[in-house]
């Protein structure tokens, strides 16, 4: 048996084309690309603005079952499908998110796909890339610094230190920074107050960059950020501190989508990167809408399982940007379904059709949920060598009983050739006119009712609990004019419930709302449930322990 080549070895051996050639495929003149080396570039705001009024292509969402340690391969399938569509003669563009350094050095790995379905340069995309995340971190922390500076120099806005809601961020997993006291050390260091850090991908600035339509919209949204409250409980905005202009300056280049290529030299936009378990989990609106003007098909992903990423893609991104998805792909693996059926990770290599069928309940729930939004769906079985014919047949039979089709995909090992069948099916669905997209809830419902609708209809929860302080806060925001905003649920990605160990398709569980945060600039209310953390920690043995430079100066250990 031939040795399995790692993702990074495959990426390193890729024959890349100059980025100007990739741009030319899309009709982007070289002068409208800002190159970052030979293999990546930003697309100019001038070119993007000139595409207004052109006809949109078809929008395809790739989502997945709830993630497990067995792996699902959602990004890999997104990239593979983009290549597959190009292979069958369609002009397709992949739109995915940028990678956070936290998971790269923690446990999850990168965000550039895998096997022979990757975007390259893989090392750059998974590390500093074009500096977008650093710009977001800097803009966010500039506002934090200006808050404390304003208070130090007399607090003209009468900010209540007890009600400052703007935390700091960094793009790394570091549990020690979740809760802390800042400004210690005497009079010259300011006024001590409780503070803390979130990971950069959870920043409202990240969400704003991903939802803004242009630089003017970006600056307006930055000004709308609420940093805290005065002693009379009125909100203090970033524009009150005159921070919005400087923040927009720091984000000027980061707003431009990044163009790279797949291993098969097809175009890919990699831009933005909010987590779907604690933010809205989609790549930028500006990248998606630009791609729709340039391609016949745009394949994009939403983070984690469909209960998180797909729900937020539909209820936040599509609602805010006026997008109408034409079809959805739900990625599943035999291994992950067996794990949902109770099989331990070490035993996944053995055939177990009975456990697989039990675990398929998770897949069935996701199929029903995506259809609830009026979007036709197909299931992609991301193939592993340990899969047996009986197990694959069981998944196909289960999906057929749910009125959909499951297609075996071998893109990890074979690239676009291994995913042709899925590409043809996606075209069939997208061209069928079946899509009748509608968000899950209307704008005019009370915020708590929106939370309850997501919990009951998507999570199948029996009850939502929230203490009086949370309910009063939601009511206050409604009185202030924020009641029409959608809700962004922060929940564990591993389960439909708030218990990460409750796999499969649980029903009747309780969703406990611990905290709510108003992201007025981004345009949604974050609802923090269960034990979810907005600053992750590192595992006992983080990936960082196995990442190093070899004797030739190449990076080893990245997934």
From TrEMBL:
Positions contributing to ATP binding: 68-75
EC number(s) from the headed UniProt entry: 6.3.4.3
Domain of life: Bacteria
Keyword rRNA processing among UniProt keywords: no
Pathway where this protein functions: One-carbon metabolism; tetrahydrofolate interconversion
Catalysed reaction equations from the record: (6S)-5,6,7,8-tetrahydrofolate + formate + ATP = (6R)-10-formyltetrahydrofolate + ADP + phosphate
Annotated InterPro entries: Formate_THF_ligase, Formate_THF_ligase_CS, P-loop_NTPase
Molecular function GO labels: formate-tetrahydrofolate ligase activity
SUPFAM superfamilies recorded: P-loop containing nucleoside triphosphate hydrolases
Keywords, comma-separated and alphabetical: ATP-binding, Ligase, Nucleotide-binding, One-carbon metabolism
Transmembrane is among the record's keywords: no
Family from the record: Belongs to the formate--tetrahydrofolate ligase family.
Protein name (Swiss-Prot/TrEMBL): Formate--tetrahydrofolate ligase
Organism, as annotated: Rhizobium mesosinicum
């Amino acid at each position: 048996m031939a040795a399995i080549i790692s993702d990074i070895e495959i990426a390193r051996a890729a024959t890349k084309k100059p980025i100007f050639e990739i741009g030319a495929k899309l009709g982007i003149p070289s002068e409208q690309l800002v190159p970052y080396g030979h293999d990546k570039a930003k697309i100019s705001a001038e070119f993007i603005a000139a595409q207004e009024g052109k006809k949109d292509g078809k929008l395809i969402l790739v989502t997945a079952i709830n993630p497990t340690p067995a792996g699902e391969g959602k990004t890999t399938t997104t990239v593979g499908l983009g290549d597959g569509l190009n292979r069958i003669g369609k002009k397709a563009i992949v739109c995915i998110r940028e990678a956070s350094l936290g998971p790269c050095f923690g446990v999850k790995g990168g965000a550039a796909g895998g096997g022979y379905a990757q975007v390259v340069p893989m090392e750059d995309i998974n590390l500093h890339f074009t500096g977008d995340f650093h710009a977001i971190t800097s803009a966010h922390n500039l506002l934090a610094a200006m808050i404390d500076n304003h208070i130090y120099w007399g607090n003209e806005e009468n900010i209540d230190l007890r009600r400052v809601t703007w935390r700091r961020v960094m793009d790394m997993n570091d549990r020690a920074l979740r809760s802390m006291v800042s400004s210690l050390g005497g009079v010259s260091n300011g006024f001590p107050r409780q503070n803390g850090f979130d990971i950069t991908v959870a920043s409202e600035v990240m969400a704003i960059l991903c939802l803004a339509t242009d630089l003017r919209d970006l600056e307006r949204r930055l000004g709308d950020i609420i940093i805290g409250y005065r002693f009379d409980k009125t909100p203090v905005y970033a524009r009150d501190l005159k921070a919005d202009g400087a923040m927009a300056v720091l984000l000027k280049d980061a707003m431009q989508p990044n163009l790279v290529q797949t291993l098969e030299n097809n175009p890919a936009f990699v831009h933005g990167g909010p987590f779907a378990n604690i933010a809205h989990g989609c790549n930028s609106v500006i990248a998606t809408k630009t791609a729709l003007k340039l391609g016949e098909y745009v394949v994009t992903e939403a983070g984690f399982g469909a209960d998180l990423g797909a729900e937020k893609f539909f209820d936040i991104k599509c609602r805010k940007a006026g997008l109408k998805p034409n079809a959805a792909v739900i990625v599943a693996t035999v291994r992950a379904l067996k794990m949902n059926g109770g099989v331990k990770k070490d035993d996944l290599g053995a055939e177990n059709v009975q456990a697989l069928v039990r675990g398929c309940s998770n897949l069935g729930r996701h199929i029903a949920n995506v259809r609830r939004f009026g979007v036709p769906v197909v299931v992609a079985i991301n193939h592993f060598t340990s899969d047996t014919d009986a197990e694959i047949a069981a998944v196909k039979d289960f999906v057929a009983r749910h009125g959909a089709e499951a297609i075996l995909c071998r893109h990890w090992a074979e690239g676009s050739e291994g995913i042709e069948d899925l590409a043809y099916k996606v075209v069939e669905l997208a061209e069928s006119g079946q899509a009748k997209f509608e968000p899950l809830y209307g704008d005019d419902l009370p915020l708590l009712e929106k939370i309850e609708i997501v919990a009951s209809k998507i999570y199948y929860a029996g009850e939502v609990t929230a203490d009086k302080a949370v309910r009063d806060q939601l009511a206050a925001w409604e009185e202030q004019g924020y009641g029409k905003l959608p809700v962004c649920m922060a929940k564990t990605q591993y389960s439909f419930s708030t218990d990460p160990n409750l796999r499969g398709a649980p029903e009747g569980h309780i969703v406990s709302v611990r905290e709510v945060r108003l992201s007025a600039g981004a345009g949604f209310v974050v609802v923090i449930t269960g034990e979810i953390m907005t600053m992750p920690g590192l595992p006992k043995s983080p990936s960082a322990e196995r990442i190093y430079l070899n004797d030739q100066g190449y990076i080893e250990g990245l997934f």
